[in-house]
Amino acid sequence: MSQRADTALAPDPVAQTPDRGPKHVAIIMDGNGRWAQARGRPRLFGHHAGAKRVREVVECCPALGVKYLTIFAFSTENWKRTQVEVAGLMSLFRRYISKEMKALSQRNVRVRFIGDRVRLDKKLVGLMDQLEQETSCNDGTHLTIALNYGGRDEVARATKRLARDVAEGRLNPDDVDEETLPKYLDTHVLPDPDLVIRTSGEARISNFLLWQSAYAEYEFIDTLWPDFSAEELKRLCDAYGQRDRRFGAVKP
Ligand code: FPP
C-alpha cells in the first residue's frame, strides 16, 4: 500500500485544514484552580498542568489552519491572588520560557508578549525579550502570550501614547479614527481574533482583548483548561466554520 493511501485510511484527528476555520483563536485558559482542587492538590498544581496543555494546543494549530493563537496567561487583576500563587505563577512563566524556548524555535513558532511589563520582575522580562528575539524570524504559528494584560489597561496605555503624539505635533486630532487607535495597542501587528474561547464554564470575557474582539465569535465551554485538548479545539474550529459572520451587514 502506498504511503498516501495508508495516510488516507488513518487520518490524524486534527489533520484537515478547514478553509472556513478561524485564522486567529484567542483563549481564556480558565479552571486550573478547580481542576487541582478536585484532585485535592494546591492551585499551583493546576497551573502546572495547564502549562502542559499550552504545548499541545500550540502544536495542533498548523493542522487546523490557525495562524495566530493568543492566550491569556496572567491578567492585570490576577495580582489580587495570594502572594504564594502569584509568585508560583511568575516562577512557572520563567520556567516555561526557559524550557520551551528551543522547541518553540524549532517548530517555527513566533512568540510575542502583550501586556504591561513594568510590574514584572526583571529576570522574567529578560526571558520574554529573549524568547521574542529568538523566534523573531519564524513565520509559522504566531503565539501571543498575554502577561500582566488587561484590555482596559491596554487602551489606557495606548491613549496615553496617542495623546503624547498629538501634544508633540505628530498626530492631528482630526485624523483620529477607528484605524488610528489600534496602531497604539499592544496587538498592533496582529489581526483581530476570529474566535475567542473560554474554558471552565464561566461566560465572561474578563477584560481580554476588549477592542480587538468587537466582532469575534465566542465559545464558552465547560472543560477545565488542564483537560482541554487538540480534539476539542478542532471541534470548536469546525463549529466556527459553520457560523455566518456578517459584521453588522445583511446578506445580499
Ligand atoms: C485561570 O485559572 C488561569 C490562570 C490565571 C493562569 C493561566 C496560566 C496557565 C494556564 C499556566 C501556563 C501558561 C503559560 C503561558 C506557561 P484559575 O486559576 O482562575 O482557575 P479557577 O477559576 O478554577 O480558580
From TrEMBL:
Mg(2+) binds at D30, E217. Pfam families: Prenyltransf (PF01255). The active site is at D30, N78 (proton acceptor). It is an enzyme of class 2 (transferase). GO terms for biological process: polyprenol biosynthetic process. Residues 1-23 are annotated as: Disordered. The keyword rRNA-binding does not apply. GO terms for molecular function: ditrans,polycis-polyprenyl diphosphate synthase [(2E,6E)-farnesyl diphosphate specific] activity; magnesium ion binding. Substrate binds at residues 31-35, 43, 47, 75-77, 79, 81, 198, 204-206. Keywords: Magnesium, Metal-binding, Transferase. Its EC number is 2.5.1.-. Its cofactor is Mg(2+). Binds 2 magnesium ions per subunit. The keyword Magnesium applies. InterPro entries: UPP_synth-like (IPR001441), UPP_synth-like_CS (IPR018520), UPP_synth-like_sf (IPR036424). Belongs to the UPP synthase family. Homodimer. NCBIfam families: PRK14830.1, uppS. Catalyzes the condensation of isopentenyl diphosphate (IPP) with allylic pyrophosphates generating different type of terpenoids. PANTHER family: DEHYDRODOLICHYL DIPHOSPHATE SYNTHASE 2, DEHYDRODOLICHYL DIPHOSPHATE SYNTHASE FAMILY MEMBER. This is Isoprenyl transferase. It comes from Phaeobacter italicus. The gene is ispU.
